[in-house]
Amino acid sequence: MEPEEIDDFEQQLRLVLEQVPAPPGLKRRVIERRDAQRTARRRRVMWWRRLALTTAVICMLAGGWFWHGIQQRRNGQEARRQVILALRITSRALTQMQLQLAAHNQSVLNRKQVEQE
Amino acid sequence: MATEWQPDFEELMDEHQSMVFSLAMRMTGDRGLAEEIAQDVFLELDRHLRNIGSPQHARFWLRRVTMSRSADALRRRRVRGIPLWVRIEENHAVQPEEQSSALGVRMERLLRTLPETQRAALVLRYQEDLTPEEIAAALGAPLATVKSHLQRGLKLLRAKAARDLKEYVRGA
């Protein structure tokens, strides 16, 4: 094949393969699809945001409720400890009083015995 | 001081829609499918717009993605054996035969009979006037392979033209 023939054929090919115009309305259709996709994406983002917000609120409420439960348990334990302490103090006071009464009774008995003798 | 280039989607569409559509149509041979590919390519461009740094980058990106999407569409069509659905409007259904010269139509038909890789190389070479190096970059193929596709494709097309287009092709 001669070089000029190749050039001629390639030149014809270049002319035949010129860019063809895009179909009318291609840009409009692309922009419509883009806008629809953006709207759908925005809706999806909003939906996820709402879900995240709801989850956060639920977690906070659950955390608050759990913390409140722990606090109540701690308060209950503290109250129990104080009641036990109060009972111990009362018990000790009663024991002391009992000892004093016993000693007093003993001294009265001793005194009566001395008087009878 | 040079200002930084800001990509504008609609300007890029105005500038490149014919190129994208022509590449897709010559690769698939189907106007409806080519329009669908062109729409998908531009929607993808919109999503990647912030990564596009210059007009040259935009043109290179569009060529590369169009060729890749066209190859995917052809592969899907081969696998499924059915044409993909696309919304067709009245003015969209104009056949290329009505718009082009008889030689152009017949040459394009011959081009469609070439193997896909050779057709891709020839379309980028003669429609887009790219060098083999640029074609290799656009197709993501080794330079030697692209040169081989160009040479073989041209030889095959010339042989087909010599057989079918004797009255048009001088010296074929």
Write a brief caption for the model.
Chain A is mainly α.
Helix-strand topology string of chain A: HH
User: Structural class of the secondary elements of chain A?
Assistant: mainly alpha
Poorly predicted residue ranges of chain B: 84-99
- The end-to-end distance of chain B, rounded to whole angstroms, is 54 Å
- Radius of gyration of chain A, Cα only, in angstroms? 50 Å
Structural class of chain B: mainly alpha
N-end to C-end Cα span of chain A: 161 Å
How does this structure look, described?
- The complex is a heterodimer of chains A (117) and B (172).
- With 117 residues, chain A is mainly α.
- Chain A has one domain (31-116).
- Chain A has helices spanning 3-16, 26-116.
- Chain A is rod-shaped.
- Residues 1-6 of chain A have low confidence and may be disordered.
- Chain B has 2 domains: 7-94, RNA polymerase sigma factor, region 2, helix turn helix motif (Rna Polymerase Sigma Factor, Chain: A, Orthogonal Bundle), CATH 1.10.1740.10; 100-172, Winged helix-like DNA-binding domain superfamily/Winged helix DNA-binding domain (Arc Repressor Mutant, subunit A), CATH 1.10.10.
- Helix content of chain B is 69%, strand content 0%.
- Chain B has helices at residues 9-28, 31-47, 55-80, 96-99, 102-112, 116-126, 132-139, 143-164.
- The longest helix of chain B has 26 residues, at 55-80.
- The radius of gyration of chain B is 17 Å and the shape is globular.
- The relative contact order of chain B is 0.11.
